[in-house]
């Protein structure tokens, strides 16, 4: 598949993600106003997080397609990390507000009754169907292009199905048996999931902004490729750092000093292409040194 076609497919997956998330936010805002259910509020906060994450994913795909410029010679991927920190803070605040409201509702002598449960259930069912359709498209695009951003966004939406099902269960229990407390319990569980996800996003963004090294699996894989590459007699100073969805790699390889410049260049270029094929999210710089005898 050509790079241009892969980029179009990735952008289509990103655009579908943003449109679905935006539609879900609008639907759940209406459902929250109709029902007053905290479980719907938790699902709404989750969808708002989805919208921000999807917008970040779209930005990541756009930035990945853009070449570095004079002011940003290593690209613009660190903007993803700054956005992710803001997202994690917003999510934590939302989880805290939902938790406080759920606890207050649980300890109230006469908990507030829910309204229009049937309408809320219909909205949540529509949300699940839209999410499943998006996941199917993202799965196809990820299989064809191998894009890491699309894969990560797909996993995120898979995890969103549980809060939607919980909201349906709480609305049904309220409508059928008058058990309004279940709504608060489901909201507490959803708020906990939101907080865990926010901390994970925030930690990953912080690590990237602090130039944390890449995953050891990636480092070991690159080391194996360099060690076994024909013409490379050794390597040293394998350094990596993360920025957004990019992993920057610096590697010194040791070559025979009697090689011609073209031969040395071909060895380094071949190794670089192989690393990029194995790890498409990397940006690789290889330095060539004379091997010590």
List the helices and strands and how they pair.
Elements: H1 3-35, H2 38-65, H3 78-107, H4 117-145, H5 148-159, H6 161-177, H7 181-209, H8 216-228, E1 234-243, E2 246-255, H9 261-278, E3 282-290
Parallel strand pairs: 2-3
Antiparallel strand pairs: 1-2
Helix pairs in contact: 1-2, 1-4, 2-3, 2-5, 2-6, 2-7, 3-7, 4-5, 4-6, 6-7
Explain the overall architecture.
With about 290 residues, the chain is mainly α. The protein folds into 2 domains: about 5-210, Up-down Bundle (Alpha-lytic protease prodomain-like), CATH 1.20.1510; about 215-290, 2-Layer Sandwich (Alpha-Beta Plaits), CATH 3.30.70.1350. Helices cover about 70% and strands about 10% of the residues. It contains 9 helices and 3 strands. It has helices spanning about 5-35, 40-65, 80-105, 115-145, 150-160, 160-175, 180-210, 215-230, 260-280; strands at about 235-245, 245-255, 280-290. Strands 1-2-3 form a 3-stranded mixed beta sheet. Strand 2, helix 9 and strand 3 form a beta-alpha-beta unit. Helix 2 packs antiparallel against helix 5 (about 150-160), helix 4 (about 115-145) runs antiparallel to helix 5 and helix 4 (about 115-145) runs antiparallel to helix 6 (about 160-175). It is elongated. The model has no long low-confidence stretch (mean pLDDT about 80).
């Amino acid at each position: 598949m050509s790079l241009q076609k892969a980029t179009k497919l990735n952008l289509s997956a990103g655009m579908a993600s943003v449109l679905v998330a935006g539609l879900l936010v609008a639907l759940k805002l209406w459902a929250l106003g109709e029902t007053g259910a905290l479980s719907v509020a938790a699902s709404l906060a989750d969808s708002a997080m989805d919208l921000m994450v999807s917008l970040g994913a779209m930005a990541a795909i756009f930035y990945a397609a853009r070449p570095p410029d004079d002011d940003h010679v290593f690209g613009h991927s660190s903007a993803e990390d700054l956005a992710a920190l803001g997202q994690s803070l917003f999510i934590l605040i939302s989880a805290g507000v939902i938790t406080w409201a759920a606890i207050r509702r649980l300890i109230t002598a006469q908990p507030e009754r829910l309204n229009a449960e049937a309408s809320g259930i219909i909205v949540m069912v529509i949300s699940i169907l839209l999410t499943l359709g998006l996941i199917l498209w993202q799965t196809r695009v990820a299989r064809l292009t191998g894009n890491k951003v699309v894969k990560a966004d797909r996993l995120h939406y898979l995890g969103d199905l549980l809060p939607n099902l919980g909201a349906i269960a709480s609305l049904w229990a309220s409508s059928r048996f008058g058990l309004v407390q279940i709504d608060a319990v489901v909201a507490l569980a959803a708020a906990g999931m939101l907080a865990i996800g926010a901390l994970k996003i925030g930690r990953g963004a912080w690590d990237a902004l602090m130039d944390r090294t890449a995953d050891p699996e990636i480092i070991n894989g690159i080391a194996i490729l360099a060690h076994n590459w024909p013409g490379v007699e050794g390597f040293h100073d394998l350094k990596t750092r993360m920025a957004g969805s990019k992993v920057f790699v610096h590697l010194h390889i040791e070559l025979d000093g009697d090689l011609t410049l073209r031969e040395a260049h071909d060895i380094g270029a071949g190794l670089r292409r192989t690393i990029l094929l194995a790890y498409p999210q990397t940006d690789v710089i290889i330095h060539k040194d004379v091997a010590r005898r």
